[in-house]
Amino acid sequence: MSTYLTIALDLAALAVPVLPLRAGKLPFGNCPACKATACGGRPVMKTAGPCECPGVCHGWAAATTNPRTLTSPPWRQAWEQAQAVAYHPGGAGLTVVDLDNTDAVTWARQTLPATRTVLTTRGEHWIYLGVMRSANAVRPGVDIKSSMSYARWLGPGTGTMTALPDAVQALVVKEPSPASAALPVISVSARVGGGKCPHRTPAYLDRGIAMAEQRITEATSAVHATVYRTFLAVLSAHGRCGCLTDTHVGRLFAAAQAKGEGPRHCNDAWANALTRLGL
After folding, report:
1. 122-148: b or e for each residue (b if 16 or more CB lie within 10 Å)?
2. Would you say 27 and 19 are in contact if contact means Cβ atoms under 8 Å apart?
3. How far apart (Å, rounded) are the C-alpha atoms in residues 75 and 197?
4. pTM, whole model, 2 decimals?
5. Tens digits of per-residue pLDDT, 77-122?
6. SS3 assignment, position 225
7. Residues in contact with 137: Cβ distance below 8 Å, sequence separation at least 6, in sequence order
8. φ and ψ at 55, to 5 degrees?
9. What is the rounded distance in angstroms from the CA atom of residue 29 to the CA atom of residue 48?
10. Are 16 and 92 in contact (CB under 8 A)?
11. How far apart are CA 151 and CA 210, in angstroms?
């Protein structure tokens, strides 16, 4: 049994979902059945769990605590080639603040409450009790790894874990960027004709926007595709009458960004939907 598999089984016994990493701190690639999400990306959800196929697939979503899965033939081969052990912090109820350099570590010591600390090759991991949305580059040299993410296991660390503070959660709450503020609704309405809205009551539009927000918020896989299809549906119903406002589209963009979509992805999806409909 490889050293990495031994470590993985010990962590799994502590209810920490684990997976092997290959060279470059990268997950193993998907099997042919899951390559390019040919399987539909079913395992890519907020909670980890092995793919329906027997392989070590879908990155962080492959993380598991099941010893039978960890020691199965496909996984055992991966462990023999592994260069490190990773774990899914969100699946273990944790959030990792990844501090990638000395400046980031200095900032954390001056700003964040003390918690368990793990030394890394370039900085430190600060580990808190609690789960939140993951995000990269929330400030120079600082990444957040929690839900839908993985972190390299570098040992138990030192210190006592404390509850996830508001100061960490606030790092992923950003003011709207100029790109997201420049919503294309006004130009779309003018180009489409600005005619009277054919809908009988404003409540019809509000209900449609609320349903679109819910569809994006509840997406557990293929978020990019869900956002695009939702934008397409909204524009199909409301894009030609001029009833959409910046507020309506701002709500849709906000829902998409809450799922991890960046302003550029939102604008691209909106523009692509416009082009598809010939607006």
Report:
1. ebbbbbbebbbbbbeebeebbbbbbbb
2. yes
3. 58
4. 0.63
5. 999 999 999 999 988 999 999 999 999 999 999 999 999 999 999 9
6. helix
7. 143
8. -80, 175
9. 16
10. yes
11. 35
